[in-house]
Amino acid sequence: EREYRPAAAAELPADGYSLGVGQMTVDLRGMGWPRDRTVELDTDMGVGQTVVSVPARVCVDADVNASVGHVLVRGREGSGIDAEVTEVTEGPRLGEAPRLVLDSEVDAGEIVVTDRPPEEFTEDDDGHDESDPEEQERQDEACAA
Q1: DSSP secondary structure string for all residues of 23-69
Q2: Is 99 left (phi over 0), alpha (psi -120 to 50) or beta?
């Protein structure tokens, strides 16, 4: 298991986070997010689970792929072989909301991008790893802000 909780964007490694086998959590909810700031992050997992948590006010532009498995990005999901969710805001920025540009991959397993606490997804299966229309709405609002 690997847990990362950077306090500032400068603490994010330029080449992102990677793990061969296991569970990786990247909790960005405590990080300073200046208005009109774009942060880029890459994650790469061999076999296992990656959970990336962001504040609800952050717009997530994501290209998330699982060769085999499940992906869940701010309430939108895909599963099976070559599962993916691509959540990209088209056109010019509409507002000053902070933005995360995420490129995340897993060979076999699960990727979750959420504004909820990572513990909801990393503890034993408690039914929280499913599509959430309210989280989709928060994502849409953040990207329109």
Answers
A1: EEEEE-TTS---TT-EEEEEEEEEEEEEEEE--TTSEEEEEEEEEEE
A2: beta
Quick one: pLDDT band at residue 124, thresholds 50, 70, 90? low
Higher per-residue confidence, 92 vs 64: 64
User: Across residues 123-140, what is the average pLDDT?
Assistant: 73
Residue with tokens 């920025």: 93
**Amino acid code (one letter) for 142:** A
d(CA 90, CA 87) in angstroms, rounded, equals: 9
* Residue 83 Cα to chain centre, angstroms: 15
* CA 69 to each of CA 18, 52, 81, 96, 110: distance values in angstroms, whole numbers, following the listed order: 17, 16, 7, 34, 6
Question: Which has more pLDDT, 76 or 126?
Answer: 76
